[in-house]
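Hey, resending since the last one bounced:
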Amino acid sequence: MHPPDRRQVCVAALALAVAAPAAAAFGFDELMAVLAQRQSGEAKFAEQRFVSVLDQPLNYTGTLSFKAPDRLVRTTLTPRQESFVVEGNQITLQRGERVRHLALDSMPELAALVAALRGTLSGDGSTLRHYFKPTVDGAAARWTLKLVPLDFRLLGVVRSVRIDGFQADVRMVELELADGDRSVTMIEPIAPSRARSATP
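The structure tokens again:
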């Protein structure tokens, strides 16, 4: 029995490689599909703000909650209690007995930052693309989303937003400001995310 021709073996191996399905790429659209499975969630957060004029970072802790499509609540517990509620185009700020109501579209820079978080939490790719140039690294099990503002006015305030996560859970948000200051928020879900049940 003659040994197989080396050229035939190479051709056969190449044919198998071509026929084998390629691993599915994981990019922005795939990440949005994963994130869109979440409809609500609650989490604890710990934020550090690094300000150039201060020797030590500022520390904040509290809770976050989200309910699709657009309700986002941040409740700060330390160093002082205050809340920030966004629903639709309305913002409600409360510190002690003082309550303020604002329209989100009256503050374009804040509107873009809220869009970054709400768009990520809800898997709303069109909203994110409206404000940012997005890039994704990693896979569904562990991913990083980087958002760079498209509007030059926003770039004058925010250099980039980096969001890290596992599956549909956002675990870290890093905000880098144009003046060099930045904040890092670590997020710990109170309950693991669950995909929406498929309709029978």
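DSSP finds five helices and eleven strands in the chain.

Sorry for the duplicate.
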